[in-house]
From TrEMBL:
<dbReference type="GO" id="GO:0004499">
    <property type="term" value="F:N,N-dimethylaniline monooxygenase activity"/>
</dbReference>
<dbReference type="GO" id="GO:0050660">
    <property type="term" value="F:flavin adenine dinucleotide binding"/>
</dbReference>
<dbReference type="GO" id="GO:0050661">
    <property type="term" value="F:NADP binding"/>
</dbReference>
<dbReference type="InterPro" id="IPR036188">
    <property type="entry name" value="FAD/NAD-bd_sf"/>
</dbReference>
<keyword id="KW-0285">Flavoprotein</keyword>
<dbReference type="Pfam" id="PF00743">
    <property type="entry name" value="FMO-like"/>
</dbReference>
<keyword id="KW-0274">FAD</keyword>
<keyword id="KW-0560">Oxidoreductase</keyword>
<comment type="similarity">
    <text>Belongs to the FAD-binding monooxygenase family.</text>
</comment>
<protein>
    <submittedName>
        <fullName>FAD/NAD(P)-binding domain-containing protein</fullName>
    </submittedName>
</protein>
<keyword id="KW-0521">NADP</keyword>
<dbReference type="InterPro" id="IPR050775">
    <property type="entry name" value="FAD-binding_Monooxygenases"/>
</dbReference>
<dbReference type="InterPro" id="IPR020946">
    <property type="entry name" value="Flavin_mOase-like"/>
</dbReference>
Amino acid sequence: MNYQDEGVPTVAALQIEKRYGEERAKRLRDDGDSQFVDISLSDKFHSFLDDPWVDAAPVKNASSMFPNNRCQVLILGAGWGGLLYAIRMIETGVRPEDIRIVDRAGGFGGTWYWNRYPGLSCDIESYCYLPLLEETGYVPRHRYSSGEEIRQYADLVAQKWGVADSAVFQTKAETLEWDEESKEWQVELVQQRHGEQPQTLHIRAPFVATVNGVLSWPKLPGVPGLLDYQGHVFHSSRWNYALTGGSPEDPSLTKLRGKRVAIVGTGATAVQIVPHLARWAEHLYVVQRTPAAVDHRDQRETDPEWFRNEVATAAAWQRERLRNFHQHFTIEKQPSINLVDDWWTGAVGMVAIAGNAAGPKAMDELPAYMQKLHAMDLPRQQRIRKRVEEVVKDPVVAKKLQAWYPTWCKRPTFHDEYLSTFNRENVTLVDTDGKGLDHLTNDSIVAGDESYPVDVIIYATGFRSPFTGSPAQKANMTIIGRNDVSMSEEWARSGPSTQHGVLDHNFPNLFLSGPWQASNSPNYLFNVDALAKHSAYILAEAKRKAGGYPFAVTATAAAAQDWGVQVLMRSPPMAAIAGCTPSYFNVEGGIDRAPPEMQMIMARSGLWGHGIEDFMRVVEAWREEGSMQGIEVST
């Protein structure tokens, strides 16, 4: 295969690749991921984490939720992942009343609890994204569900499976410590209810699942003068409707009339917010470091009759739809039928981070593989760059809005109004050519030689990378396993030692939720549900083998070693991310700079490089075999 096979002349294609490299080089910084302020680790900026939604409902006192300071199964995280872990365990025999779901939020939903900004909706088709549609009979209202609908559906699911009363909200796990003698975890929880002093609880739980999500901790740009600015400011994940007007149900931002607003960031979040800000602000400044590649969205309401006759047509229809969706991320022949038929399924370059069994088997095959990837991807990116020219009237602005990187380097974005927003007279693109803002003053943002006085600054600057640290670090807690092994220290030194990504040899009875040593899909909820089912199966089978409580279940050292080798052997297809423009995908270019020995650990710790459906085939065959090979149960 060569570039001309895909309709892009070879010389032009090479010039585009050269441009990709030049744009990447502009954005690489010596401080890498540390250029950002991790809000959760900084006392100075901790107010950016304040919960604007918690007053909507009373939160139970945590001490009343743990009779005898115990529970049978403790799930850390009340987002969709936590709900799915609870539901899959209930399906294998765990009673809802024996489960406790802990979350620092004030309700279910995870990312959909915290993020309620105007225009928020999922970028994955709702008939694929929303779990358990077949079981609930729920019909999503739109092709792409709004954040409010997704959050409300989470509440519906919690009620249906009987775990609505199992939640311990506004509560965070600080430490987990394994007790080998009693075969259970000693857990320190801290509840911080609104307007009250923190309450510390010490409880015990034989089984714990860490399901803390992938994008949980907001970050700010490390811009000089960040605290000098005296105007109104907030992070997009804590939207301040008291300041802007409107509500999650009504994006009428009436209080922004007459206001000059700056939004910092142009990723998937800002793409949805910008059109709404532009409608209401006197003037909107969109601060861009790297342009988003914005494809069509084609939102529409769901016709219930069409849904019944064309989508939910047979048993297991949602699993088949997702299988078909995944099959479009391949370097081989596309499926003859496209059940989803959206612009995601045209983004075949995402195979570079989704993985594919037809990818390279060794690193010396990577150059040829990269040529294939670029050949597939260039026509799409050229079309998207052309779309900018067709929609944005000012050619100078259009040029600055064109994305110069392959599809797989950033999560694709989809919107039908974002680009046309830059045709409005009250919208200014502040393009920083990859540098970001220079500094802030008491009343302005400063980029290069230009100063822009603003009344409100909104940071749509994303979250801590999900691909750094252990589950303990991901949740800002301490986990101590067998033989006093610290998870954070062990994973930093050697990486995880898991079977199928769900049980680490050093941490019995602790069920993990990926992505380490597991797989990936653009639809993350499919990943977490696959691991939830796998974890629930292992727990149920371990209980059967043990004949009752207490017992410890974990991966054997040999099985964990073998699984790490299996992941490593399938890692070459994932190497394409290393040369990308900086983003959370590659930890702001940090993956490229890791020393060789660390890159080897990262490869055996990373994603299953043959793709999500191949991963499913492996774990489902393991369950079908039935002997729990590689799993140790001790009483």
